Amino acid sequence: MSGSLSPTEFRVPPVDAVALEARTADLATRSIKKDAKVQGLKLAIAMMDLTTLEGMDSPGKVRQLCQKAVAPLPARTDIPSCAAVCVYPDLVKIAAQAVAGSGVRVASVATGFPSGRTDRRTKLREVELAVRAGASEIDMVIDRGAFLSGRYGAVYDEVCAVKEACGDAHLKVILETGELKTYDNVRRASRIAILGGADFIKTSTGKVSPASTRPVALLMLETVRDHYLETGKMVGVKAAGGIRSAKDALRYLVLVAETCGDAWLSPEWFRFGASSLLNDVLMQLEKQRTGRYQRGTDFSTD
Fold it and tell me: With 50 as the cut, is the pLDDT of residue 234 above it?
């Protein structure tokens, strides 16, 4: 695929920002009944990638995170496992051992996360090492410098190369929408990532503000929907960074259902990049079950 597209393939129609933001605001007003809310909160947990991407990450911290991903609330067997844990490449082997046999996947950031400022050979080597260590998903970052200077072909070529290096592992392409600045850029970057072979397009690294916003997520969902209508191929969306409350998570699920339909309401096609979201969702589920709010200290912080 690399190098096979002409510049016209990267053209996208302009985004009507007013309509996009009005649609987002309208969908945020949808009311959700109690039973549907409980189902939605459990689905949100099943869609979470529990993430630790700090310089002080250790094998012990990763094992604790994996334990929580496998059994978010051990006392309740009706609570599903999370979709994946996401760690740095050097900790993939630890994570893979910790979740073995559970169904929880191991994702690894790669390609010079979070800035992407390294040469392509190093980026591809990092991907290959993470996959070899047991990662079944790779979260790459695009070269925003290349994109913002109009070198769309270079961004596309790199996505293609990383996809090839992934082998059987799924590829999530992080756009870092907070640095792209405009909705038109988000739409174009989404299209480039999809054409390059992305299995998911992802909003953010979580290291840049603003991270995920609902208008941006809606725009990305519209892009994957349009791609599906054009080609019949489904592509997932991952919203990451700044999503901290159960209410926020439910609003994102409304965006997914109303934009792409029920088929995307699955961890196979929608994910949350979560570091602090899980505990609030668990608190809300306990509130629905008992009628009382739990204390934050009742849940582990790992």
Answer: yes
